[in-house]
Design goal:
InterPro entries: Epimerase_deHydtase, NAD(P)-bd_dom_sf, NAD(P)_epim/dehydratase. Belongs to the NAD(P)-dependent epimerase/dehydratase family. This is NAD-dependent epimerase/dehydratase domain-containing protein. GO terms for molecular function: L-threonine 3-dehydrogenase activity. About 45% of the residues lie in helices and about 15% in strands. The protein is of the alpha/beta class. Helix 1 links the parallel strand 1 and strand 2. Helix 6 packs parallel to helix 8. Bound molecules: 2-amino-3-ketobutyric acid.
Length: about 325
């Protein structure tokens, strides 16, 4: 049976990925590690939880050795908008934290999953049908850390044979745990505002088109890639994956089909708008589809329908 460590387990992806991994492999075989000293509401006291700052290599080593982990889903990271406010800390967590994970994986023979992002692209990258292999000159600190992470994962595979795999996630939409400080957060916030106030003031322009994905697809993508036959993988790390691509205006129109009195206004945040303007509009994810069978389930109408249902049911 696998023994899996999830770092960043109390974050937006971590809470849901941890639950799905526990359902699949047994709660006792999935160790959740988070920076916070408290459990997220989705994680119960009975399931293994460790407080971990990924910058602390010795603490990380102790957890992996103590539980005899063979796989690490390394999700701990600062997101794009918050990284612009704390660039040194963002580098430390996103790059040095990953380096600690890779070194620990090398020592203990673990496989590693690393989430990169559309943020790994920049203004010179082709914005439409962004190829799997293309120019990457991001101008956000977050993007720079993600490119460094992609390269480090490739390096540890080629140099040391560490079984690294990864995805370039688009904006992720979910209703269990809020994202913290990303450029695509509007696509989550809008649902809570729509249900509660029937109005949302968006920090990106109405025509800002970005790739997006609903969380069940994002979780399935990570697990499917980690379980793929590595002989069929040509890329291993940093696969482009997307499920839909839309603008705030289009998302608002889809919400209005369910809530006709919903309205949207725009108060642009120049920092997040500049980041969004430097990212692709729509990635080509054919390499992921061909190499390990990537196929999302949720499109825009299905995502909007489910998000509104879940948020309304939970009374959030
Ligand atoms: C962010 O907006 O920073 C993240 C991402 C696209 O990587 N959601």
């Amino acid at each position: 049976m696998k023994k899996i460590l999830v770092t960043g387990a109390t974050g937006q992806i971590g809470v849901e990925l941890t639950q799905v991994l526990r359902d699949k492999y047994g709660a006792e075989n999935v160790i959740a590690a988070g920076y916070n000293n408290r459990l997220a509401s989705e994680l119960t006291q009975a399931d293994p939880y460790c407080r971990l700052d990924v910058r602390d290599a010795s603490a990380l080593n102790k957890i992996v050795a103590g539980y005899q982990c063979d796989t690490i889903y390394h999700l701990a990271s600062l997101l794009s908008a918050v990284a612009e406010t704390k660039p040194i800390e963002a580098w430390d967590i996103n790059v040095n934290g990953l380096l600690n994970v890779l070194e620990t994986a090398r020592t203990h023979g673990c496989a590693v999953f690393f989430p990169s992002s559309i943020g790994a692209f920049g203004p010179e990258t082709p914005a439409f049908d962004t190829p799997q292999d293309t120019i990457q000159r991001p101008n956000s600190l977050y993007g720079i850390t993600k490119v460094a992470g992609e390269l480090l994962c490739d390096y540890y595979f080629h140099r040391y044979g560490v079984d690294t795999c990864g995805l370039r996630y688009p904006g992720l939409i979910s209703h269990k745990t809020l994202p913290g400080g990303g450029t695509t957060d509007y696509a989550v916030d809008i649902f809570y505002a729509a249900v509660k106030y029937r109005h949302y003031d968006c920090f990106l322009r109405a025509d800002t088109q970005l790739d997006m994905m609903y969380m069940p697809d994002a979780v399935a993508a990570a697990i499917t890639l980690m379980e793929a036959d590595s002989a069929t993988l040509k890329h291993r790390n940093a696969f482009n994956v997307t499920a839909m691509s839309f603008t705030p205006g289009q998302l608002a129109a889809e919400i209005q089909k369910h809530l006709p009195d919903f309205t949207i206004s725009y108060s642009i945040d120049p920092v997040r708008q500049a980041i969004a303007d430097s990212w692709p509009r729509h990635m080509d994810d054919s390499a992921a589809r061909a190499e390990w069978g990537w196929k999302p389930i949720y499109d825009l109408p299905a995502t909007v329908q489910d998000m509104l249902k879940q948020i309304t049911i939970n009374g959030q």
